[in-house]
Design brief:
By secondary structure, this protein is α+β, with helices and mostly antiparallel strands. It folds into 3 domains: 225 residues, Lambda Exonuclease, Chain A (Alpha-Beta Complex); 39 residues; 66 residues, no CATH class. 47% of the residues lie in helices and 20% in strands. The strands form 2 sheets. Strands 1, 2, 3, 4, 5 and 6 form a 6-stranded mixed sheet that branches. A 3-stranded antiparallel sheet has the order 7-8-9, covered by helices on one side. Helix 1 packs across helix 2. The protein is globular, with a radius of gyration of 28 Å.
Length: 378
C-alpha cells in the first residue's frame, strides 16, 4: 500500500473523502484555496531556486507570480483580483522579512518515500517536501509552507503528524541525519501571517509516529475489507471538493420535492428551536432550585403531584499524560490515541496486572448531581 500524508490525513478526517479520492479515483477540480496555494508555492520555489547566481529581486518575484497567475481558475474576475492582490501582499511581506538573508538550501519541492514494515507486509509512505535548509552547526531544517488563514497553537505543531512523517522521509533519504548531534528542526511557515512555528522530534516521538501509521494502515485495510468508509463532517468540509458526492451536502442545491418531508423538516427545526428556548429556561430554573436545596440542606422538593429529586452522578477520569507514559513503552498508546474511557476500558483487560494497577492509581472520581422529575413519592 502506498499512502501519502494527504491520503492519511483525508482518511483520519473523513474516510469517505479518502474513498472517493484514492479508491474510486474520482477527479474533481482544484478548490480556489488549492489553486492559490499552488501559485504561492511556485513563486517561493522560483525565489529560492539554488540555480540563481543572485537571488531574484522583489520586482522579478512579483513578475513571475503575475505571469503564472491565471484568472480563469477563479469563479469570478472579482475573486481572482482579490486573491491576486492578497498573493502580491504575501510575497512582498515574505521578501521584506527574508531578504537579503542568505539561505543554504539543500533541496526544494522534492519527493520522498519510506517503508513501514508490519506483519510481513511492506507499506510505503510518500510525500513532497517544500524545502530543506542546512543551518549553522550542521543542523538541518524541514520547512513546509502553509497558505491557509488558520494558524494553529504551538502544541498542535509539536504533535504534527505531517512534520513527523517528513522527518522520517528525510532521514530515509539521508540516513546520516539519524546519527546527527543536532536534532532536525521542523517548521511550518504561515505565509499569510509571515510567521514560522517550529518544533523538534526525538526518537520516541518518531517510534510513536510509526505506531500511529501502522494503526491507520490497519484501519484502512479493515475499511476496505468491509467496504465501509463513513462520511465524517468536520471543519474542513467548507473546503472539500467532493461535496456533490457527500450524503451530508449533495442535496443542498436540490429542493425537497416531497412536500410531506419538507413540512416535517420545517416542523423539526421549529420544535428544536423551541426546545433550545425551553432548555434555557430549564437551566435557569435548575439554578434557582439547586441554590434552594443547598440552603435548606435538602435533596428532594415536593410539589402538589410531582417531586424533584437531586441524584448524585459519578464520573471517572484519568490523567492523560500519565496514561501516555504507562502505555507508550508497551506500544499500546495508539490503541487509545485520544484518551477516552471507552477505549481505555476495552484495552484495560488485555494489560498485565501491574500495568492495570498503575492505571487505576491515576483514576480520578468526581461526583456531580442531576435533577429528575417523578410522581410525588408517598
Amino acid at each position: 500500500m502506498n499512502l501519502s500524508y494527504s491520503a492519511l490525513s483525508d482518511f483520519l478526517n473523513c474516510p469517505y473523502k479518502f474513498k472517493l479520492g484514492y479508491i474510486d479515483r474520482i477527479k474533481v477540480p482544484k478548490s480556489p484555496l488549492a489553486i492559490f496555494g499552488t501559485a504561492i508555492h511556485s513563486a517561493l520555489k522560483f525565489l529560492h531556486e539554488p540555480s540563481h547566481l543572485t537571488p531574484p529581486t522583489e520586482e522579478e518575484l512579483l513578475k513571475f507570480f503575475t505571469q503564472q497567475w491565471n484568472p480563469e481558475n477563479w469563479p469570478s474576475q472579482e475573486e481572482a483580483d482579490l486573491n491576486f492582490a492578497q498573493g502580491v501582499e504575501i510575497l512582498k511581506n515574505y521578501y521584506a522579512k527574508n531578504y537579503p538573508t542568505k539561505f543554504n538550501i539543500v533541496n526544494l519541492e522534492f519527493p520522498f518515500r519510506f517503508p513501514i514494515e508490519y506483519r510481513g507486509e511492506t507499506h510505503y509512505i510518500t510525500g513532497r517536501i517544500d524545502r530543506v535548509d542546512k543551518l549553522e552547526n550542521d543542523q538541518f531544517e524541514i520547512i513546509d509552507y502553509k497558505t491557509g488563514q488558520r494558524m494553529p497553537a504551538q502544541s498542535e505543531v509539536d504533535h504534527s503528524l505531517q512534520l513527523s512523517i517528513y522527518q522520517l522521509g528525510v532521514t530515509n533519504l539521508w540516513p546520516f541525519l539519524k546519527e546527527s548531534a543536532q536534532p532536525i528542526k521542523l517548521s511550518l511557515f504561515f505565509v499569510r501571517h509571515n510567521l514560522k512555528l517550529s518544533t523538534k522530534k526525538n526518537s520516541s516521538d518518531l517510534e510513536e509516529t510509526k505506531e500511529s501509521l501502522i494503526s491507520t494502515i490497519e484501519k484502512i485495510k479493515e475499511a476496505q475489507k468491509l467496504n465501509k468508509f463513513e462520511p465524517t463532517p468536520n471543519r474542513l468540509c467548507d473546503y472539500c471538493n467532493f461535496r456533490q458526492y457527500c450524503p451530508y451536502f449533495r442535496q443542498k442545491e436540490k429542493p425537497i420535492e416531497d412536500q410531506k418531508v419538507k413540512q416535517a423538516a420545517q416542523d423539526f427545526v421549529d420544535l428544536k428551536t423551541k426546545k433550545k428556548e425551553i432548555d434555557k429556561k430549564i437551566a435557569q430554573a435548575r439554578e434557582i432550585i439547586e441554590k434552594y436545596l443547598d440552603q435548606k440542606n435538602l435533596e428532594r422538593l415536593f410539589l402538589e403531584n410531582k417531586a424533584i429529586t437531586r441524584l448524585p452522578q459519578k464520573k471517572i477520569s484519568y490523567d492523560e499524560e500519565t496514561i501516555r507514559e504507562i502505555l507508550q513503552p508497551l506500544s499500546k498508546w495508539t490503541n487509545v490515541v485520544s484518551l477516552n474511557n471507552k477505549k481505555l476500558k476495552e484495552l484495560f483487560e488485555t494489560l498485565p496486572l501491574d500495568v492495570q494497577q498503575k492505571i487505576e492509581q491515576t483514576q480520578k472520581e468526581t461526583i456531580s448531581k442531576r435533577l429528575t422529575v417523578s410522581p410525588t413519592v408517598k
